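This section describes the prediction task in plain terms. A model, or a person checking by hand, is given the sequence of a single protein chain and must write out its three-dimensional structure as a string of tokens. No templates, partner chains or ligands are provided. The sample shown here is typical of the held-out split.
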Amino acid sequence: MLITILISYATGTLLTAALFGLIPEAIEGAGHEPHNVMLFVLGGILFFFFLEKIVIWRTCPDEECDVHGIAAGPIVLFGDAFHNFTDGIVIAAAFLTDFHIGLAVGFAIIAHEIPQETGDFGILLHSGFSKKKAYVYNALSSSTTIPASIIAYFLLGMLSTIVPYVLAISAASFIYIALSDLTPELHKRLGLKHGLRQLLLIILGIITMILIISLGVHSH
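The expected answer:
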């Protein structure tokens, strides 16, 4: 129940951060090249599709498949470390653009990470890890966000012309995660009551992001 609530809320925050925050800022930063920004968004969605399909190897829903079991643990840890490293770059690029956009992006990432890390912890336990090892390894794989943020902050600061396109790819990742990873989980719970609750929580996530982003708009 709690995981479904978090996933619903995270769906709203990710989509709004991408569509109301990252993409508009990317287009504004790119100047007279809005079509190039949208090309990066589209290309980013395709990139994350192939990344998930080929590189990260998402564990399948069938517990009897070849990917499940002991091998799933290292796969999840590798994928999580890479994903959190990417989140660090996203956060740095957002804060370089605008403080409130960075705040909104950081909040959206936290909202998404809570249900994801909970799910990863469950997979590690299923793969044979003890609770202590699962917690420690999960924490280590999550720690890649901080060094990635620091490195990206200085590098992107020197290469400011590429920041709009980093934001575009970041928006693509948010849209892809919301529609490919989170939304299918919500469809597993059927019934009008569940559907309405999920919709209300998605709207709550949207409202939260609009309020945070609008603070930045009013401060300009």
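For orientation: Residues 100 and 121 are 31 Å apart (CA to CA).
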